[in-house]
Every structure is written in C-alpha cells, then in structure tokens.
From TrEMBL:
Residues 42-148 form the PurM-like N-terminal domain. The lineage of its organism: Archaea, Thermoproteota, Thermoprotei, Sulfolobales, Sulfolobaceae. Transmembrane segments: none annotated. SUPFAM superfamilies: PurM C-terminal domain-like, PurM N-terminal domain-like. It comes from Acidianus manzaensis. GO terms for biological process: protein maturation. Residues 177-321 form the PurM-like C-terminal domain. This is Hydrogenase expression/formation protein HypE.
Amino acid sequence: MSSKDIITLLHGAGGSYMHNLIKQIFMTLDDNFGDIGLQMLDDGAVINNVVFTTDSFIVRPIFFKGGDIGRLSVSGTVNDIAMMGGDPVALSLGVVIEEGFPIHDLEKIVNSIKNTALEAGVHIVTGDTKVMEKGSLDKIIINTSGIGFRSKQLDHDIETLRKTREPKEWLVPLNLRPGDKIIVSGTIGDHAIAILSSREGIGFEANVSSDVAPLNKLINGILEIGGVADAKDPTRGGLADLLNDWSEKSKLGIYIREEDIPVKDEVRAASEFMGMDILELGNEGKAVIAVSPEYVKDVLNELWSIPQGKDASVIGEVRKDIEGVILETSIGGKRYVGRPLGDPVPRIC
C-alpha cells in the first residue's frame, strides 16, 4: 500500500492535504442543509439562525505554556461560532481517556474548562465519557460541539455593509469586496511556538505563551462598530491557509505586507531556528478580519482598547487586479503565498 492510500499527519494539519481529503471523501456526503451548510466549508453551519459547530482536540502536550487542552477545547468551539457572527451559548463535552490517566490531571483540565466557559459566558450542558485500554490512546481526546444564536451586533454590522455591497446574512468570505482592509488582531505564531517549546526533545525553549482564548466578546465589539465583511481565526495552517481560503471562495486577490504583520521577536527567532514559515504557524487566540475601508480606524480603536487586541494591525487589503495571496516582503520584493501542505507543527490543537 503506497503513501497515497493511507492517512498521514498532514491530512489533519489544516493545509492542502486536509482540504483535499475533505473534498474527496467527506464532501461526497453532499449535504447543503440549512442557511450555511456543509458545502460552504466554513467554521460551522447555520440552521434556522442557530450556529452549530464541532471540534476534536488532540494537542500534545496536554499542558503547555499559557494553557491546556481544556482551555483549548472551549476556546476553539466558542471562536468557531463567533467568527460566523454567532453568539455562543452552550457546549457539549465528550472526553475519551486512556486507562491509567491521573485523576488529578483530569481535575485540572475540567477546572480549566469551567473557568474558560465562565470567561466566554457559555454553559457546558451535556457530555459523554469513554475510557480506552492503556496504550491504545495518547492520554486524552476532547470533543466539544457548540451552538449559538445570531448575534444582535451582527444585524447592525450587515446593515453597514449594505452601503457598499449586497452582503450575505452571516460572516462568510463571499462578503469580501475589493478595497476591504485585512486586520489581524495581534501577534501571530504564539500558540505553535508555545506548544513546540513545551515538548520534550525539541531542543529549544522560548519564552512564549500560547494565545489560546475565547474571542466572542472581541468579535461582538467590532460588529457593534460595523463594516466587518468576514472574520476567521487562523488556526491550523495559519495565516497562509486562511487567506488562501478567503481568496479561493471570494475569487479575489489578497495583498499583504510582511512588515505590517505583528510577530514577537521570540516567535520570529524560534521559527527561523526551526526553519518554519511564520505565516503557516497555528494560532488559537487571534482573529483575521476583513473590514470596509471607512470603518477601519474605528475597528482598530476598538481592538486597541482591549488586551486581546492591543497589537492589532492592518496587514493588507483585498484586490481584484491580482490572483491568490501576494506578500510584499520587508525588503520590497513580492512572493506568492500558497496554501501550505499542512501546519508545520503537528497536534497543536
């Protein structure tokens, strides 16, 4: 059996391998039920103004600088709902545990889940627990599914978009128009480098904490300002995968400037040491936002007013005279940014 006939880690890493797998295998389900269904390939589905999403978390290590698998599981699902314009309300919690797992560690994870849910203002309302034989599972897997209702702030945001376009009723890439500015809410690559530096045997340590956090309140704040065409968190595959997804679905080009992309010095040094592209590194507490030009200043001021958005920056714009994603380098050159094969750091979420 060749490598083409089996699943590899790349198939779950958020890049072109995973997208091809989804299109070739899972899209044969061919179900477009609801306002936004499977065919949209977005962060979740919308059914009768209810946003529904699900995610499974297999991060290694389960405790890392700045977070743990519990905080990650709540934040990831909350953010998927928020990035579509939903207000997350309730989550399910499915936990698969390896035999021999320390109860003390499970208590720490559940306490982290509780605290993160309180931070986000969501409720854990149902769940399931399974235990597998020792050696048949790497410690613990968590699945969280979530529902949310249409955010009140989204109606205001859509109304502001109608001044310049005919938007869809939710935050989706089809809302993008030439001239829209691309904002990133903070420094990129923090989560991936924090995970790597927490792993044994990697050979380096970085004083970087994961950015993992629920972003629903941040998103509601900018929707209240208005002019937001779409928002998405750059998780697996990072900024490169997200922007290529936007370009592909909107059929527009995206131009970004390297010198405007916020990156911590420690993250830049670590990525260079490991030979990784910063644009492909995963994040768990950042949002990329497409905004109408006339609202950019106010959106930035809103982001800068809160800790999670203090490093927010305009990194580029949507254009119709180019194809795909183009990066203007810090030395003035230009290069094409393709969709990565996958996130260079496996099992970051």
